[in-house]
Amino acid sequence: MANIVQFENVGLRYGTGQETLSDVSFTLSTGAFYFLTGASGAGKTSLLKLLYLAQRPTRGSIRLFGEDAVTLPRSRLPGFRRRIGVVFQDFRLVPHLSAYDNIALPLRVSGVPESDVEAPVREMLAWVGLSDRVDAKPPTLSGGEQQRVAIARAVIGRPEILVADEPTGNVDPDMAERLLHLFDSLNRLGTTVVVATHDFHLLGRIQKAHMMRLDHGRLLDPTGSLRFPPPNAPGGSE
Amino acid sequence: MSVKVIATAADRRLLDESRGTRAMTWIMAIMLFLTVLAAALGLGTLGAAALLDRQLAGRLTVQIVEAVESKRLDQTQRALAVLRTDPVVTRAVEVDRAKLTTLLRPWLGADEADPDLPIPAMIDVDLRAASDAAVARVRDGVRAVAPSARIDRHESWMSPVRSFMGMVTLLAAGLVLLMAAATAAVVILAARAGLETHRDTIEVLHMLGSTDVQVARLFQRRIALDTLIGGVLGTIGAVGVVLLVGWQLTTLGSDLLGGLSLGTRDWVLLGALPFAFAVLATLAARQAVLGALGRYL
Ligand SMILES: Nc1ncnc2c1ncn2[C@@H]1O[C@H](COP(=O)(O)OP(=O)(O)O)[C@@H](O)[C@H]1O
Ligand SMILES: [Mg+2]
């Protein structure tokens, strides 16, 4: 299976402090499912930002879709970003747009004709259980509802990679499982999925998932071959 | 480069239209009001100057420089006769001698002019056509009967009124250019402020794969519309003022100011100004936005 993402000795430093990420090396296989775990402040969001091209690394090399993503010219970023769906930790919904328009954004940005927008948006709204909140603006939605809009927006374009940063942090366990099932369905259709979470209840739900663990900016298992539960954790190995 | 002014409803919703006043529309209304007034003044003066040029170009002064009075009188009469039969001459009038003496008194002294002092006789001539050939023919005709005649063609640049008009025209053109520069500057500032206001939205759009051109289009559409509406309003106001002033001028019945009228071409130019300014504003906004977006990742 081809590698869709390859990090080699990647380091990231914000400003002049110490490195937030150090010597991060891993590969993601096309079509696989990954969990990224680690304590708060370990660097999960920073690593994902490098992955969805919101941040350039301070050192090291990143290959994405078989191309060097570090030296990618600005003009080619939009094309790459359209192939990646992102659930931001802080949702990043456009506050003055309705739930419908927020979810429709990726399609409209990609130039999908307006006649082909409505059906998939309604389908996504139904999937995340928000069919009755079509016209609601994000500030009037609960945290969990906003998160579901963010997820719907991330997956509507059938991205090749889905990056979700703590996507179940604001929803109840039932909804968390439902959303995870959505990611799983997308994964079955061929999307490579990376979910950052520290919700250990979720980890066991996807049997095929690979584990990546970050600790103080370092990846504990650079090969990315860990399975849940970790072999050294109580509960045994595979 | 396509500048689509009509945005889809979805595009219009993207930049929160309720936020941010429509100050741009009012600024543009004032800008175009002043610009159209300046342009009307410039175009009107240009028209008056052209009219004056045509009049001056067809005007000659014939001087009969002859010391012996009887000869001078004789030659003057014969020159007048020749001039009045020439078809190209529309008017030939001897300047009244008493008037001429009055005019010359400051130079000749207050005393009665020395009868021996040879004041030349002068004839004002208007020509139908101001061509060099016509002037040469008149000169030859007059010289044949009055060998001492000197024929002076009026040069338009010698007229102080003409040079004043030239100055007013230049001033008006300078004002129009200044207003265009000020408009571009205002639009650039507004576009930058708009970018700051919509920074979060733009970041999201970038993350979803929007190109800079797509983002710039959102701004330029909006600015094109705002500036066009404001510009047309300002132009309508200014045209109203111009019509009012024009009507006042006609009631004055002044020869000089009567030339200050606008032709069809002038009106078309004035009407095109708000559109030209909207295009200028749109391009300025586009450049400002693209330049600023280049600093995002
Ligand atoms: N934009 C930033 N500027 C400076 N420091 C940052 C920035 N983003 C994150 N950090 C720091 O990097 C570290 C890792 O943060 P983050 O990647 O958000 O971790 P996690 O997502 O695992 O909680 C933290 O110490 C945080 O303070
Ligand atoms: Mg985080």
Strand content of chain B: 5-15%
Strand order of the main beta sheet of chain B, please?
2-3-1-4
What is the number of beta strands of chain B?
4
Average pLDDT over all residues of chain A? 88
Termini separation of chain B comes to 23 Å
Approximately how much helix is present in the residues of chain B?
55-70%
List ligands, each type once.
adenosine-5'-diphosphate, magnesium ion
State the helix count of chain A. 7
* Shape estimate of chain A: globular
Helix/sheet category of chain B? alpha+beta
How many discrete domains of chain A?
Answer: 2
Give the fraction of residues assigned to helices of chain A: 25-40%
Q: What is the N-to-C order of secondary-structure elements of chain B (H for helix, E for strand)?
A: HHEHEHEHEHHHHH
Beta content of chain A: 15-25%
How far the N terminus sits from the C terminus of chain A, by CA atoms, comes to 22 Å
Total number of distinct structural domains of chain B:
2
Overall geometry of chain B: rod-shaped
Stretches of chain A where pLDDT is under 50 for at least 5 consecutive residues are 230-238
Count the E strands of chain A.
10
How are strands sequenced across the largest beta sheet of chain A?
6-7-8-3-9-10
Which two chains touch over the largest interface?
A: A-B, 29 and 22 residues
Protein name (chain B): ABC transporter permease
Keywords (chain B): Cell membrane, Membrane, Transmembrane, Transmembrane helix
Pfam family, one (chain B): FtsX
Transmembrane segments (chain B): 23-52, 164-191, 227-247, 267-285
